Amino acid sequence: MSEPVWNKFLTERDKAVFEAAGYGTRGGFGKRPALLVVDVNYAFCGDKSEPILESIKRWRNSCGEEAWPAIAAIKSLIDKAHEKGVPVIYTTGVRREDNWDSGSWSWKNNRSKERPTVPVSNRDGNQIVDEIAPSPQDIVILKQKPSGFFGTNMSSYLTLLGCDSVIVTGTTTSGCVRATVLDAFSLNYHVALAEEGCFDRSQASHAINLCDMNAKYADVVKTAEVLDFFDSLSAGMFDLPKGTSPRPAAVA
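The structure assignment produced for this chain is given below.
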């Protein structure tokens, strides 16, 4: 088994402390999970796979090419969740046209008010990428702060679904993913993260935040293990939204 991605960033003292203090025990998946897909939109992924320093010229929050292998892993989880009838809940951002409601987001980034200096795709940055676009039975939650729980209906929807646990994927590992994990933990959900389905613009932040969450708040597991867990579930456990399929285009 390969060693955790964060091991190369830890000192021997760090590893000894975690072991001696008892951190990192497996918490388990729970019995009624929802799959959370956090902010996998064009603002954080760019509109194509390219080196991050190129991507952020057009999409200042982009994680660059790190996003695209993760999108493939997330798609495999979404497909399996659909097959088994497991709830899939997406989050993405929402803003006024004048960006007034950006609020504190503008305080820590000196590019927050700039106009693009090179042509930008006609994609809305908050649009979830086409490769994993929500299906009619999926739930999309719009948010304005890092956590998928803060100021949203996430908790009430999980209660309506009877969920006791969440499998978290998405971006950024150190930001919105971590904030969502901590709130889920604080609300006493079992929490797991699919390692290959999480990504960040900083390699070190990605690894260390996975380490910290695995130590105290969640189980960081391989995507293959989550797929096996979904396979073990009975189909039809949840009363999901029926959704509405798109109307067929009119034929002239």
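Interim note for the steering committee: The first helix runs from residue 12 to 21. The mean pLDDT is 92.
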